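User: Here's a chain of 453 residues. Predict its fold as tokens.
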Amino acid sequence: MTSTKSRPTNLNPLITDLAGLDLITDANQIAKLSQDYYTFSPVLQPLLADKTGDLVVRPVNEAEVLKVAAACVKFKVPLTVRGAGTGNYGQCVPLEGGVILDMTRMNAIHWVKPGLACVEPGLKMAAMDKQTRETGWEVRMAPSTYRTATIGGFIGGGSGGIGSVTYGQLRDRGNLQAVRVVTMEDQPRVIELRGDDVYKVAHAYGTNGIITELEIPLAPVYPWAEVIVTFSDFMTAARFGLALSNSDGLIKKLVCGCAAPIPTYFAALRSYIPDGAHCVLLMIAESSLEPLGELIKEFGGTIGYQKTAQEASKGITLAEYSWNHTTLHARSVDSSLTYLQTLLPDDNLALLEHLYHHFKDEVMLHLEFLRVAGSARPAALQVVRYTTEERLNQIIAYHESKGAFIFNPHTYILEDGGMKAIDIEQLKFKEMVDPYGLLNPGKMRAWLERSRL
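Assistant: Prediction complete.
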């Protein structure tokens, strides 16, 4: 699906209006800032490889964002918001050129209170944690790109991550308190959204508002130990992961299961995981290590690696082998590999076992346990041996026919990669705040098909 609008032809008047702002006009830099990690998908690669913006603007405050929005509306120039570009679906790739609004210079922390922080969208999540941890709090959940990802990018394009085993997903009520948004109306304005209204712009790829400030709930800081548990049988590993995730008395941040041969792609961890073994990567509070040991015994697992929180704080952490980084490590060894994202119905390990045996190592199982409606559930970010798009679609269709829900990472269309349904509230908000459809055009199916709704 593509949009019918043409690229802007002459940006000189707009550049004149933006005099005094931090502008990037070098073609090579613009090309770099037009990309994200859509290259994980062999389907998206040919669709997005030649898409670039025409100008990058790096605002330092909300007033400058308003100025950029006004100029883009005045000259009808598309605008695509960008954080660190660590997304995987082309969320920040401009399909129709125009302005790329790089938010990384808006990186201030306005205030931190017990359980809550007010920050700007360009703030890196690791930098946020460094400051909030001084008061005993940290971000509730983060992507595996935590060291470089921005909080605004995560809210705009992410869904969950490290911490979701306890706190669920971003879309769960309570995981985002408030946002300030700049509109793209004839007279751009600032709107504050609170409560359930935040979901009008959360996970909307920046298609219906420019986020300039966020209130983010925090979690208590624990000393997070790291453990790798190995198993000779994958389904035993999966049952252990589910049992741990449902053990309310054990405080954990990450439960990540990887079927063989995925651990062979983890170069730095190979010596801790026997050949042919399946592993579960854990981040768990040091105070929970003793009862964790009892659970490991119950399931017949073996501890192959363990670090205290102090030891784990130095160098690469296990978090960087989880979530989308699992695929990153696999692709660093074999670039033909790709991935899927799957939520299993309830805690259905019977379906998981069927899929494991049905696809064997064509679809290598990588599990991330997260909390859904109060109980743990396995989600899969399977590593797939890619052959053709037709075969990939067959794999997706088979999963769906069995009741598994695929969040398709091989499309840049917002709804097609997510819940597969039009979000009327997001569409209504876009119609109000972006009447000319200038924000990240071509990504929202609801907008493209609104005449038929």
